[in-house]
């Protein structure tokens, strides 16, 4: 029996959890998946609530936890079975959140995550656990690292003037430094807003690539306004009805006009893929509302997504 994400304490975020240690271990045995073991104070302090919001609520992180792990939540401030598990792992009562990644024998796979509000720190633990446990990280989870760099403010932003921002998007996303693109306007000019990863190269390198494409860095910045048709090629496809991350939008927008057959689907999570199948099967996409250009945290309703994938 797992918790109801729509009615559970806010300290648990949006993940649906096992609450029984033995049941979680049995499921780990059955599926050969590692256990994502959260020790959490419920009800908890602001640190506990912030951890749930920042680390356990973003839709694609939630799905990754539920797909690749057996999620188990143990309260660190109650007696009974929870206290027994707390003592088993020598964790402190009334402590800030701690996450352990254990195998079916209750043994740590990677060092535990002490309290942190850095989603990339949690992501790294998750990714390493998956690599050790199953040797292969699904592509949507690989892309999640890039998305978290955008959301965490690690990526940097540059604006490039282009003759046509629609083709500008598909050109810029091909550079390995670029995480996402968006068509827009600045000072009356068509521009592409780029999120890039400074750990993968310098702005000078990116500028050199842009110049080769016929684009120029906007050095004197003005008010930026997103175009009404960002990711133009994506907007004209069936993928537009899906809730998508910034990274997914940009990659799909490139894959579609370049006719990379079948590649678009590889960017999607299992739930997104199931939604796509349903829309195709029932011919519902034509009348469906476009969700792709909205913040995925707003466009992704767990209740609606899960209901739609069961239809």
Task: Describe it.
The protein has 311 residues and is α+β, with helices and mostly antiparallel strands. The chain has two domains: 10-137, Glutaredoxin (3-Layer(aba) Sandwich); 154-311, no CATH class. It is built from 14 helices and nine strands. It has helices spanning 21-31, 46-55, 59-68, 81-88, 119-134, 139-151, 165-172, 203-213, 232-235, 246-255, 263-266, 270-281, 296-299, 302-310; strands at 35-40, 70-75, 98-102, 108-113, 156-161, 178-186, 189-196, 216-217, 224-226. The strands form two sheets. It has a five-stranded antiparallel beta sheet. A four-stranded mixed beta sheet has the order 2-1-3-4, sandwiched between helices. Helix 5 packs antiparallel against helix 6 (139-151) and helix 12 packs across helix 14 (302-310). The mean pLDDT is 93. This is Thioredoxin family protein. It comes from Echinicola soli. One of its GO terms (molecular function) is peptide-methionine (S)-S-oxide reductase activity.
Keywords:
peptide-methionine (S)-S-oxide reductase activity, Glutaredoxin, 311 residues, 14 helices, 9 strands, Thioredoxin family protein, single chain, Thioredoxin-like_sf, Met_Sox_Rdtase_MsrA_sf, 5-stranded antiparallel β-sheet, elongated, alpha+beta, 2 domains
